[in-house]
## 1
Amino acid sequence: MDIRNEVKSLIFREGYSIKRIAFEISQLLGRNISADTLSHKLINNTLRYQEAKAIAEILGYELEFKKK
């Protein structure tokens, strides 16, 4: 599964919409991110680490690097 589908799957599994996540990210990071912008970032694989971390936080997850 690619990052786009993985993130979208988590968002919907947790009962959120792209629009709500975009709003929550805007509040958390203090800059305006629209639902269209977030969708395009997911489609184009241009999501920033800070944004991915914010999505994880909003959904109640944390990003972690694990050594294999």
## 2
Amino acid sequence: MPSITTRAHVYVHGRVQGVCFRASTRDTARNFDVKGWIKNCSDGSVEAVFEGKRDAVEKMVTWCRKGPDGAFVKHIDVCWEEYSGEFDEFSVVY
């Protein structure tokens, strides 16, 4: 039976820059074998795309609701999209 894959496009709002949010997200995504990217936005939020097995991507979205120590997440916006398979790894975009 094939694995069910999905994609989530996420914006995380709150105190999420300057608290190792991107690096912690990258490490967590790699642990869950989730591919995609994360970057800082000019408005102080972070934007990420997660692709992989549905349960792993759902875990990443849940993880983003809290983030690493030092972060304060006010809210997240999640858009579920069709899996593309375009990523080889999870990376931080600068």
